[in-house]
Amino acid sequence: MGGIAVFRKLGVLLFVLMSTLTLAVVVVDDAGRVVEFSAVPERVVSLSPAATRFLIFLGLEDRIVGVTDYDSYEAERVGAMVPVNVEKVVALNPDLVLMFGGFQLPEVAKLERVGLKVLVINPTSLDDIIRDVVLLGTIFGERKLAVEKAEELKNKMLEIGKKAYNIPPSKRPKVLYLISAPGPDVKEIWTCGEGSYLDEIISLAGGINIASGIAGPNGWPQLSLEYIVAQNPDVIIVGVYVPGTEDEEVKKILDFDPFREINAVKNKRVFTVDGNLASQPSPDVFKLLDILYDYFYGGNNR
Predict the structure, then answer these.
(1) Which pLDDT score, from 0 to 100, does residue 21 have?
(2) In whole angstroms, what is the distance from residue 122 CA to residue 218 CA?
(3) Which InterPro entries does the record match to this protein (predicted)?
(4) Per-domain boundaries in the chain
C-alpha cells in the first residue's frame, strides 16, 4: 500500500509520496507551483545570485553547473537573469533550474516548454528565507541539516530581538537605508519599506525604519528628499557594491547638500553594508542583524 506523508515543519508544505515502487518529493514553491522530484537533483543552474547563496549556505555549491552573469560564484555563465538564454541553460543539461519570482516569473514557462524542471523561490521576509532553507534542504536530501541551519537562523533572530526588546521607542534611532548613495541631481531615494526583510532586520536590531509602513514593489519604495529631511533620521545605512569604496560612499552622503541638516549627517552616523548581500534575500542577510545592532548601539566602525 502506498501512502502520503505531509510535513509542515517550519512552515514548509511538503508531500512525500511513498509506494513500493517509488519515492518522490512533491513541494509547493514560492510561486504556488507544485513541483515533483523523483530523484535528488545533481546538476543545478541558478538563475539568481540570491538562489546561489541559498545553495552555498546548505553546502550544495558542488551541484551548481551554471549561473547568470550577475553571480559572483564561479561556474558556467548562461547570460542575463532576464531574458533567460534558454539554449545555454539547456546545453548544461540541468536536473533543476532554480530561480526567483517577480520579474523572473514569466521565464518559467519558457524553460518548462523545453522540458526543464524549475523551482521558484521568492522570499520577502525572514520567515520566508527560513522556510526556503528547509524547502531546498528537503529537495536535495539534506532535510536534517537544513532544519538545523534554519533553527540557527531563528535563534539569531531571537538573540538580537531579546537584546533590543527592552529599548524604549524614545531611545531607538530613526534609520534611513539607502540602496545606494545619492547623486547630485537625485530627487527620490530608493529604500526598504513595508513588507521587506530589511525593514524587519532594522526593527529587530532596535532601529525605527523611517520608511516602515510605506509600500513599494516587493517592499522597496521611493522616498522624496522632503520626506527624509522631515523625518530627520539619526542613522543612515548605505549599500556599497565595490569593496574598498566604503569611505567614498559615506563622503557622498556627508557632502550631499539636501542632507546637511539631518542628524545622521551632523553627527556623522553614516555607515555602510555590503550592498550585494543586503539586496539579495538569502540566509546571508541574517549577518546584518549583528552589524546593524552594533551600528545602532555598540560602536561606530564602518
Answers:
(1) 42
(2) 10
(3) ABC_Transporter_SBP, ABC_transptr_periplasmic_BD
(4) 39-151, 167-298
How far, in Å, are 140, 191, 241 from residue 198 at the CA level?
28, 9, 17
Residue 27's φ and ψ, nearest 5 degrees, are -125, 160
Q: Are strands 188-190 and 44-46 parallel, antiparallel or unpaired?
A: unpaired
Q: Rounded to an integer, what distance in angstroms lies between the CA atom of residue 261 and that of residue 267?
A: 10
Tell me which architecture the domain covering 39-151 has in CATH: 3-Layer(aba) Sandwich (3.40)
Q: How far apart are CA 139 and CA 41, in angstroms?
A: 8
* Under 8 Å between Cβ of 290 and 155: no
For residue 219, what are the contacts with CB-CB under 8 A and spacing of at least 6?
124, 192, 193, 194, 195, 196, 197, 198, 199
Summarised one tens digit per residue, pLDDT across range 207-243 is: 999 999 999 888 899 999 999 999 999 999 999 999 9
Query: pLDDT for 246-274, tens place per residue?
Result: 999 999 999 999 999 999 999 999 999 99
- Provide the residue type at 243 as one letter: P
Do the domains at 39-151 and 167-298 have one common CATH topology?
yes
pLDDT digits (tens, 9 = 90+) for 73-84: 999 999 999 999
Q: pTM here? A: 0.90
CA 166 vs CA 1, 45, 161, 174, 198: distances in Å: 55, 45, 9, 16, 21
